[in-house]
Amino acid sequence: MTSKPLVIRHARHVRHARRHPVRRRSATLTALTGIMLVYSLLPLAWLLVNATKTQEGLLGSNGLWFAGEFALFDNVAATLTYDGGIFTRWLLNTVLYVVLGAGGATLLATVAGYGLAKFDFPGKKAVFAVVIGAVAVPGTALAVPTFLMFSRMGLTDTPWAIIVPSLVSPFGLYLMWTYAAGAVPDEILESARVDGSREFHTFVRIGLPLLAPGIVTVLLFTVVATWNNYFLPLIMLKDPDWYPLTLGLAGWNAQAVTAGGDVIFNLVITGSLLTIIPLIAAFLLLQRYWQSGLAAGSVKG
Amino acid sequence: MAVTRRSWTGWRFAGPFLAVFALVYVAPIAYSFYLSLFRTRLIGGTTFVGFDNYVQAVGDPQFWSAFGRVALFLAVQVPIMLFLALLAALAIDSGRLYGTGFFRISVFLPYAVPAAVAALMWGFMYGAQFGLVGDLNDAFGLSLPDPLSAELVLLSIGNIVTWEFVGYNMLILYSALRVVNPSLYEAAQIDGAGQLRIVWAIKLPALRGALLVATIFSIIGSFHLFNEPAILRNLAPNAITTYFTPNLYAYWLSFAGQRFDYSAAIAIVMGVITMVVAYAVQLRGMRRGALS
Lengths: 301, 292
Known about the structure:
The complex is a heterodimer.
Chain A: H1 3-13, H2 27-50, H3 55-60, H4 72-118, H5 124-135, H6 139-152, H7 160-166, H8 170-183, H9 186-194, H10 199-227, H11 231-236, H12 245-255, H13 265-285, H14 287-299
Helix pairs in contact in A: 4-7, 4-8, 4-10, 4-13, 5-8, 8-10, 8-14, 9-10, 10-14, 12-13
Chain B: H1 2-35, E1 38-41, E2 45-48, H2 52-58, H3 61-93, H4 100-108, H5 115-126, H6 132-140, H7 153-178, H8 182-190, H9 195-223, H10 227-232, H11 246-255, H12 260-291
Antiparallel strand pairs in B: 1-2
């Protein structure tokens, strides 16, 4: 039972490993796409280079090369300790929102996606229509009414105001739905039912392992959505102690134009670098999983 | 008997998602519609005004100015971004690149950068103080126009959004190309078809569905533009007005103007327009698909 799903997963989702017969590589084409590569990486390189500069170094040196002194570690230390270490607090808040929000969203989307793909029930068509319609209504349009509703319920300025709206990902559900339809063969579920396995038990024992690449994909995309969330916290939170990183950094940046504000562009730049490193690392390390999950999700789209 | 048991089981799986969905999608939309039917005045308090807020929105030049701006953004930025994504996807799929894997992941990486951070970063780079534009001016004695001026700021935002999403769209398109059976290419080659002919006759039709999805998501993204202009406003308060995009306008009405009722009406109008346009594009895309 443990080896069989693996075989099926490979048969269904590893597509055409050898795309083309051996073909000559083209230096011209590589050079052309190289322009795009530079466009994509240059701003990240700029961020890395400028995170090594002091506030004075930023103003007095070329943006694409290092200034005299290498202040990266001083900047990191200053970022983490500025204003009583509030950056660390923002980092922990972001982690909290991501673990509960994106984790919860992935769990709900996985269970519901499996249910919609593998069971027939009355009202299923209506569910499909409503959820697909909801994909067209992005979080930003909902944020203001959600704020008004949550302020009535006394939830604004608490972590719940960020976590609860993050729990629903219509795109995640759609992806899990199409993924589950292809990755979990009905025959295996039927045979498990004949064996007398309870439905939820079947889901955990047989469904979940087959859905793993899809789950990693949805998890990554909900993590990105939660980690990158700016509009919702902007509306919901007044107390900087509950800010996520994005909102905190934007606040630091705005200090420069506030009368009497402390100009700390070097900390904004270093903080930005620290903010994106975890996500870039996650995408690089989990490449194998999310690329196959994305492939399966886009097939039916 | 078996059928009823199964139907209940399906709801048990979908239920938790739908319960939270009702709380954070259905309820706010309903509440927002309810609010949009009232108006609060300093004198007289809150009164039911029917569709007056909608009538006001339709005749509001600031709303239409905001809408025109995102429509222009949609008409220019989305085709450029999707065209670049398409070229990149075809280049990867051709198997003729050196370092395909490195290229693919590198172009995708900006997607992992939060929009707020991307806007901060590009904002610095656009700046004349210690940005790249200032460096170029110093190095070559140029006087490049300010990317954050009123004339160019929309273009500058378009560049940020393109940078963020071109790799993501490339991957969506590339994934769709991966499903094409390679024997089709072999057959075409035996028939004497060149690379361009294969792209035109096999690859582009195979991309139809994925392009449609990417287009719809980009339409939604354009109409609801907020993060980038909201953050760049710190650097360019004169170029980016409070009604620069419909979302920025709705936000400003709510939190600076305390006009929650009117803001709700604006948000609903924008939501309806988005859905109608997305749906029309989808229908058109599907009908074309049926014809070919």
